[in-house]
């Protein structure tokens, strides 16, 4: 089992093509914050991205093959020049583009810049987060990552340059692949920045193995002692290594993982609370209720009702 793939699946991270842009001369557009994360992949030409972030930050030049991720979905502008004053986005036009797969033509003259914008969202029922652990901007230059990411961006460029049957399906799949490849590169080149969160486990084989066992069998009555025996290390070694790289004890991480799995089943199935409790390792419904309420501030039955019948104040 792959810890990162498992976490992305549990967190319900899904990408969709938001817009394709063909830019000529004198173009620019501003976007409000409206997603968990936003990604741009440059096919051809150049553009300037200016994110609206606390503390500011200047324009970022995007060149062919570049990929840039705004993990918080921050408001931003993108234009053909660094200091152009862009227009507010026509959301209707953007939605029509995403639905039809046709590019949005911006500026005058023949398009010289072709790029794709995508958005990603988390499952709101899950507390595990991927994008919250990244810096405000992740920018990878074309040719500076690895052949996998570069090859995928080239495939994207070919698909956008010569749309065919089911191009929108192909693009949606490619942006999921690009996200994984971008995360691989960032984790490989910034190992120190992952310390203190669950992503840190990916840099430590022992902690990765511990997480893998918990993910594979969340119903097993794990304790730190039984987990350490499975891994053939001492309890103190496992606890120290786990806390050092993730900022949590093995028990705290396991509880969070179990509650995320339970939350999705409470929302998506009609299984009884007792059945769900057993599936995530609780023989006692009372103990499960107590653990769930401690992390989610409400008992499982109320959570199920709230998430299935949200009011305007509870919708995100």
List descriptors.
Jelly Rolls; DNA-binding transcription factor activity; 2 domains; AraC_XylS_family_regulators; six-stranded mixed β-sheet; five-stranded mixed β-sheet; transcription; 316 residues; 11 helices; 11 strands; sequence-specific DNA binding; AraC family transcriptional regulator; alpha+beta; Arc Repressor Mutant, subunit A
Concise synopsis of the structure shown:
Pfam families: Cupin_6, HTH_18. This protein is 43% helix and 20% strand.
Can you walk me through this structure?
There is one protein chain. With 316 residues, the protein is of the alpha+beta class. The protein folds into 2 domains: 3-189, Jelly Rolls (Sandwich); 198-308, Homeodomain-like (Arc Repressor Mutant, subunit A), CATH 1.10.10. It has 11 helices and 11 strands. It has helices spanning 3-10, 91-100, 147-161, 167-189, 205-216, 224-231, 235-246, 250-268, 273-279, 285-296, 300-308, and strands at residues 14-25, 28-31, 37-44, 47-51, 60-62, 67-70, 76-79, 87-88, 104-106, 108-121, 138-140. Strands 9-1-10-3-6-11 form a 6-stranded mixed sheet. A hairpin with an 8-residue loop joins strand 4 and strand 5. Helix 3 (147-161) runs antiparallel to helix 4. The longest helix is centred in the middle third of the chain and has 23 residues, at 167-189. It is elongated and about 70 Å long. The two termini are 32 Å apart. This is AraC family transcriptional regulator. It comes from Spongiactinospora rosea. GO terms for molecular function: DNA-binding transcription factor activity; sequence-specific DNA binding.
């Amino acid at each position: 089992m792959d810890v990162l793939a498992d976490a992305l699946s549990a967190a319900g991270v899904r990408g969709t093509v938001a817009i394709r842009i063909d830019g000529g001369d004198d173009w620019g557009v501003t976007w409000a914050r409206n997603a968990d994360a936003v990604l741009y992949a440059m096919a051809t030409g150049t553009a300037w991205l200016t994110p609206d972030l606390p503390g500011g930050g200047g324009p970022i030049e995007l060149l062919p093959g570049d990929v840039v991720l705004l993990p918080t979905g921050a408001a931003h502008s993108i234009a053909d020049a660094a200091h152009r004053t862009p227009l507010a986005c026509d959301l209707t036009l953007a939605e029509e583009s995403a639905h039809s797969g046709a590019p949005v033509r911006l500026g005058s003259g023949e398009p010289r810049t072709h790029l794709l914008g995508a958005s990603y969202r988390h499952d709101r029922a899950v507390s595990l987060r991927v994008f919250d652990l990244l810096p405000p901007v992740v920018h990878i230059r074309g040719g500076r990552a690895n052949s996998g990411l570069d090859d995928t961006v080239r495939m994207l460029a070919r698909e956008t340059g010569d749309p065919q049957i089911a191009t929108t399906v192909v693009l949606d799949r490619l942006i999921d692949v690009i996200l994984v490849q971008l995360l691989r590169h960032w984790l490989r080149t910034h190992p120190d920045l992952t310390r203190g969160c669950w992503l840190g486990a990916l840099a430590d084989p022992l902690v990765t193995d511990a997480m893998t066992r918990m993910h594979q069998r969340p119903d097993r009555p794990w304790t730190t002692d039984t987990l350490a025996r499975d891994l053939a290390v001492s309890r103190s070694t496992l606890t120290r290594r786990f806390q050092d790289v993730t900022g949590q004890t093995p028990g705290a991480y396991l509880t969070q993982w179990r509650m995320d799995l339970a939350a999705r089943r409470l929302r998506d199935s009609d299984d009884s609370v007792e059945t769900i409790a057993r599936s995530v390792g609780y023989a006692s419904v009372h103990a499960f209720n107590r653990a769930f309420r401690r992390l989610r501030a409400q008992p499982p039955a109320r959570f199920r009702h709230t998430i299935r019948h949200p009011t305007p104040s509870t919708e995100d």
